[in-house]
Design a protein that fits this description.
By secondary structure, this protein is an alpha/beta fold. It folds into two domains: 153 residues, Rossmann fold; 123 residues, Elongation Factor Tu (Ef-tu), domain 3 (Beta Barrel). The chain is built from ten helices and 14 strands. The strands form three sheets. The chain has a six-stranded parallel beta sheet with strand order 1-4-3-2-5-6, sandwiched between helices. It has a six-stranded antiparallel beta sheet with strand order 9-14-11-12-13-10. Helix 5 packs across helix 6 and helix 7 runs antiparallel to helix 8. The longest helix has 20 residues. The two termini are 30 Å apart.
Length: 308
């Protein structure tokens, strides 16, 4: 997949995609439906999205809400067969661009789109004044096709990033996965931590959660893909997502113990899929009690993952 971070200065060979356009946070089943309807149209499949998420731009001090960072979104879109990802920088200039200018300057002059597909509730341009009607009219005027994808529902309710966040907040990752069409994954670089897990006999791969919506804190059964380095591959494991209350006040992070693994993962990139929430974070009466519980957590996680 080719990834572009601007619409200026592209060569002719980079133009002409049939694009699905939106934020695609989580890349859930509703997003997949939009992407599927962008396929074909006599052109390569592309995605037009924005980084940072516009909501982050307009409300930088709001609580973290994203289901995916840009890295995870890119990996998911590549799995769906996207050939070109146009990850446009959402700056003050773009935020202030009128809808008509966005079409003429970005979609037409910048990307040379052949076709554009969006969800039925899509809005764009300064003040969100552009809508699907605007896009249809301008597509006809500038010679590109427009498809409006209907919203997707499950169990009588619209699939949305909001509903998925609620499922994760309540510790229901399998319900989130049903709406996503895939496991909810946290991706990023393995960072150096305080190495307490190693001292306890459970060496963990530590990852930050900055900018992401926090699922329910606690211990999870997880599936892990090591994306880079000599240990690339898929593993099962157990992970603690939280603030480590046994050891004082801490920034939330994800600490993942890979079963039947030995090796150095520092600096490598992991994709950790939350499968089941096993228990909340607890404070134990000493390290022996903590170790006993960690062994029980791992045994339970092994059983759950073996049954998938």
């Amino acid at each position: 997949m080719r990834v572009y971070h601007d619409w200026n200065g592209l060569q002719a060979g980079d133009w002409g995609a049939s694009v699905a356009m939106g934020n695609f946070d989580g890349v859930h089943l509703g997003h997949s439906a939009v992407i599927d309807q962008a396929r074909g149209h006599g052109a390569p499949l592309g995605i037009v999205t924005f980084e940072p998420h516009p909501r982050q731009f307009f409300a930088p001090d709001a609580p973290p809400f994203r289901l995916m960072n840009a890295e995870a979104r890119t990996h998911r879109l590549e799995k769906l067969g996207v050939e070109a990802l146009y990850e446009l920088p959402f700056t003050a200039a773009l935020a202030g661009m009128e809808a008509e200018a966005f079409v003429t300057d970005v979609l037409v002059a910048g990307l040379g789109v052949a076709h554009v597909t969006v969800g039925a509730d899509f809005c764009f341009g300064k003040g969100r004044k552009g809508n699907v009607g605007t896009l249809r009219q301008m597509g006809a005027a500038h010679g590109f096709g427009v498809t409006i994808a209907e919203l997707v529902a499950m169990d009588g309710k619209e699939i949305s990033s909001t509903a998925i966040r609620a499922a994760l907040t309540e510790g229901r990752p399998r319900d989130a996965a049903r709406m996503l069409g895939h496991w909810h994954r946290i991706e990023g670089e393995v960072l150096h931590g305080e190495k307490r897990g190693r001292e306890l006999g459970f060496p963990t791969a530590n990852m930050g959660l900055g900018g992401l919506h926090l699922p329910k804190l606690g211990v999870y059964a997880v599936k892990v893909d090591v994306l880079t380095g000599p240990h690339q591959g898929s593993y099962n494991g157990a992970a603690s997502l939280g603030v480590r209350p046994m050891f004082g006040e801490n920034t939330p992070n994800l600490e993942t113990f890979l079963f039947d693994f030995a090796g150095d993962l520092y600096g490598e990139h992991l994709s950790v899929a939350l499968v089941d929430h096993l228990r909340p974070e607890l404070v134990f009466d000493g390290l022996d009690a903590l170790i006993t519980q960690m062994n029980a957590d791992c045994d339970r996680a092994r059983g759950i993952l073996a049954a998938l």
